[in-house]
Each structure stands twice: as structure tokens, then as C-alpha cells.
Amino acid sequence: MPRTLTVQDLQSPEPSFLELWQPVENLRENLPPLRSRGNRELKMTFEQQLKSLILFHLEEYDSARHLLQVLKQDDFARKFIAPPEGISRSSYCEALNTRGLEQLLFVYEKLQAQATATLPNDHPHLGDLVAIDGTLIDAVCSMSWADYSSTTKKAKIHLGFDINRGIPGKVCLTEGKGDEGSLVPQLLAPGQTGIMDRNYQCYRHFDLWQDQGLQFVCRIKAGTIKTCLETSAVP
Questions:
Q1: What is the model's pLDDT at position 6?
Q2: pTM for this prediction
Q3: What's the DSSP call for residue 226?
Q4: Helices and strands of the chain, counted as H and E runs
Q5: How far apart are CA 50 and CA 172, in angstroms?
């Protein structure tokens, strides 16, 4: 049974919502179009889909049905987010099934570039530091590309985190078994220094990264045979 909406549920989230949406506003004209995966035309544009997702996470609704009730009953949501003719549950699910990964990555990359140019560099004396790591995320069974095991589907996000500004940097998405080391050149640019844990230790990759002019600091496993070339004092 869907939960009955209260007056508090329908209080307009305008200030917070518009504050989150405003940076995307200037990107609207260049957004790649969202296309249907089937024969039927989608009932939502990517802009409407993204607005609905922002509202969903901002208000922490407990289900898509709850969100659709708000899109139908709340004046602000109906006017600013929902399609003019409204949206049914089946049409909304069909629009979400076409997830718009290309469009979401476009928005992310543009906003990330804006944030990088705006936020202060907190550690200029250390250079441009990028923490690199990968993490698994659960995937639904229909995501056949997210191969992980015979019983489980997982995808892997590979992220370069901008330590100087405290924000995510470049991001890559692979199947759960995706090799982390091979993604480093896509997450690290010349002039930056990658910071990695010992899972990235691979001498073949180390040689390749150096040939590409990439700088990195990587923890190495305890059993590694080491030769000390130089010792530096650490404050």
C-alpha cells in the first residue's frame, strides 16, 4: 500500500532544489538527447528525468510511487519537473530504464570542470594530487555486462579523487572484474601525481605509466624486494 501524503510532504522544496539545479541550467542546450531503447517514444526528456532524480534524493522519498504522487499533486513539482501532460508509472519506469548514462556523464564532467576551476587549491605545495581507487557496486541481474561471478552481478567504479579540492575527478565504469591498473592513464593526467594502494602494484603498469609521463606514489606489498635509492627526511 502506498503511504498517504501529508501536508509536510507537499511543502515545496524550491530553494534547495533550485540551488542544486542552477549549475545544470547552462548545460541544457548542449545535452545529448535521451533516446528510447524501444519503439515507443519516451514520455520524459532527460532534463525532466534528472530533475525528478534530484527531487527524489533531496526529499528522500521511500519509493518511486511516492515520487510520482508528488509529481502529480505538488504545484511546484507538477509545474517545474513533471511533463506538461503528466507521467504515468509505466511511462516513468520506461524512461528510467533508458538510464541516460551518456547524458549523466556529460553533466558530471561539465560540473566537475566548473568546480575544479572554482574551488581553492588547499595543498599547492604538494602538487596536483589525485587519489585513485576502485569500488564495487551491486548490479541487477539484467546487467549482463556487469560480470563478477556465476551468482552475482557487480559493476566497478574507478575514481580519481582530487585531494587538493576535496571533490571527485575523472570516473570510469567497468564490469566487476575490471582491471584497476589499466584504468590509471584514464584517471591521471601528466603533471598530476596519483596516490594508490598496494592493489595497484604491477611492475608492467609502473613501466607503462612512466613511459607515458605519469607520476605516482604506490604502496607496495611487504614481501617486495626493495633497493633504497635515496632517503629523505620527513618533517
A1: 47
A2: 0.76
A3: -
A4: 8, 5
A5: 20
